[in-house]
Amino acid sequence: MTATESPTSPAAVSGRDLGQSQRKWQDYFSFNTDHKVIGIQYLVTSFFFFFIGGALANVIRTELATPDPDFIQPELYNQIFTLHGTVMIFLWIIPAGAAFGNYLIPLMVGAEDMAFPRLNAVAFWMIPVGGTLLLSSFLVGAPQAGWTSYPPLSLTASQTGQMFWILSVLILGTSSILGSINFITTILKMRIPEMGIHDMPLFCWSMLAASVLILLATPVLAAGLILLSFDLLLGTNFFNPAGGGDPIIYQHIFWFYSHPAVYIMILPFFGVISEVLPVHSRKPIFGYRAIAYSSFAISFLGLIVWAHHMFTSGTPGWLRMFFMATTMIIAVPTGVKVFSWCATIWGGKIELNSSMLFGLGFISSFLIGGLTGVMVAAVPFDIHVHDTYFVVAHLHYVLFGGSVLGLFAGFYHWFPKITGRMFNEPLGRLHFALTFIGLNLAFMPMHELGMMGMNRRIALYDPQFQPLNVLSTIGSYIMAVSMVPL
Amino acid sequence: MQSPTVNESQTVHHEVEVQAHSPHGSHPDHRLFGLVLFLTAESMIFLGMFATLLIYRFVLPAWPPEGTPELELFLPGINTGILVASSFVMHRGQAAIKRNDVAGLQRWFAATAAMGAIFLAGQLYEYFHLEFGVTTNIFASIFYALTGFHGLHVTLGLIFIGFVLMRSRNRGHYTSEKHFGVEASELYWHFVDVVWVILFILVYLL
Ligand code: HEM
Ligand SMILES: [Cu+2]
Fold this sequence. Notes:
The complex is a heterodimer of chains A (486) and B (206). By secondary structure, chain A is mostly helical. In chain A, helix 3 crosses helix 8. In chain B, helix 2 packs antiparallel against helix 5, helix 2 runs parallel beside helix 6 and helix 3 packs antiparallel against helix 4. Chain B is elongated. Chain B has one domain: Cytochrome c oxidase, subunit III, four-helix bundle (Four Helix Bundle (Hemerythrin (Met), subunit A), Up-down Bundle), CATH 1.20.120. Chain B is built from 6 helices and no strands. The complex binds protoporphyrin IX containing FE and copper (II) ion.
């Protein structure tokens, strides 16, 4: 691609192809259209929000160290877990996936930049705007209805804050749609001519699958939120049972987006893992096509499983059966990936550096999350554990044990390439050890708590649950400490 | 970025494009593809709203619910005709620019804009004469949400067309070879049109 470099191209003059060292720090605070700058902007911004979300998590865990709501008031507790979930999903994991996508995809497909660089910059700058809006809702009384914002609760508690939440999620959703348009176009249309679709790196496949989901599912959430905001602002009754509306329809719309959203959050890191493992075990990836196609199987199936979040919402029997079956089937393509990764590292020269440690941590914790996923997919079991800490354990094993560990695997893998500097390897390993211990200590007991019947999203609980909660709180502190080496 | 002579305006414009799309301008223009993706996303928003409408329709014992004043069909029917026709009118504009006929492009696009404006005016007229408000019942709410959201898109389409008309006044801005703005605004307008036809069937006719 350098052969076509023309000296008069305005971009070359403006420094696009100059090394990292020649880029000014101001570039990172401006409307820059270079995909590498944007990738780093995404990464730094999402880390910023990760620390905020993490701080909120530790407030939650501190409160839950004792059965009584003594550390913070229940109302504040609601606000904090709502913002914790929203920040982690919309401002940490999703933008962090986009960070890798922006930095790597043009390099991987041999394009000079993303297909629409200005659009790309617009998409990025919506993130700080949406994030600021979301956090500023603390000033007006933050929303309390959880990241799911189910009505009627979302229509009655903290209405102004709820409106902030809706607006912010709409902005962040738009950003992610614009980003996905860029990813799809770049991957499909801008590969160097020699690169067929089956030659491109697996990370591109997984970003493509995730982007298709973003494109198809996120707008539906927007529709639901627009109608919800009508209920809030104009007093319509789309979802308000007090006026004859049907909150279940909101749940359907919400999960039509939010189940795919969990795959939007994990697919990029499936891709990262598929890049990281072969390198650090010195073996080519096993089952390239299986991994590539299973991403699309996941995208497709991911669109038809949403009501497994609603088994207790009075869904009719046939609907439950359908969604139970599709949900269990989705474990198959997921399993295909896990087996392929294991086969990749099998017999390889494994180098236990920071990146690989996180990669192996990813496989093991994601596996646990996947297995509990199949458990909750079974209607009879789910009816018992729905809305308990069992679900919280499941989602943290897949999102923290999966997405976040995968993210760190990629972070350490590409850090030297991105910054031109080497990180401190022992510190990286310490980071992994603390994270991994903290993660399991914090979330493993939640399985047990959920089975014992402890409800999620409540500041106060029965004293019999305290010992396990203390363990979990200690785990969350260890995770907080694990960020220090980072 | 606009400039009086054909030659210069082309090079300057080219440079802007180059910056926007590729540092070397070596790859083909993917903006139309991007727009198609964007419209896919837009369709999903409408789909979400249509789905809400359909669910209520099938769940409630009567649709529209008892006591909803009848919708007048005459004016919206004419409006539909105008909007559908405008798509064809607009297409002639694109045909014109393919022949390098900028004046023709301007004529047909101006006519399209006028028809779009009439549609919006008709819509507003209907709003003011309806016997129900946003909160009357679920049918009324969804009626206003859908037609309002669609009206917003018509408005955006009009702005888009206005933009193209403005740019077309710079000589050489649009040529038979290069008229992305024309194609894009037309695609967008067709989209708005198709959504309206579905909306009309679901809300007014069924
Ligand atoms: C083997 C694949 C999976 C299956 C079968 C599965 C199944 C389920 C089911 C049935 C629930 C609903 C439980 C309930 O509310 O009662 C659930 C919740 C959840 N899952 Fe999964 N899951 C899988 C993988 C994943 C992945 C990969 C992620 C994210 C990366 C994820 C994230 C979540 C989240 C965030 C929730 C909780 C949502 C909430 O109520 O706040 N799951 N899962
Ligand atoms: Cu799900």
